[in-house]
Amino acid sequence: MGVVTGLVLYLIIWVVTFMAALPIRIQTQDEAGDIVPGTHAGSPQEHHLKKKALIATAVAVVVWGIVATIILTGAITIADIDVFNRMGRP
Questions:
Q1: pLDDT tens-digit profile of 30-46?
Q2: Can you name the residues that pair with 44 across neighbouring β-strands?
Q3: Percent of the chain beyond pLDDT 90?
């Protein structure tokens, strides 16, 4: 795995974890009872994007480390997940 491949893999893992973290612990304006005029009642009261980005970064580093280790050591290869045996066995 090259440097660019590793960075792209990390970026994809980070985006997925960030998107998964976005809806966690959201309180809407309707739930808070303070709806700002001109906004939807389902809009978040506080979004906490910085905190969620930091959490996504920490989780992505751990997940990337595990995935990179599996790829670099060859513990799981493409042939291992070839369900239809299209690649043949060595």
A1: 888 888 888 888 888 88
A2: 28
A3: 47
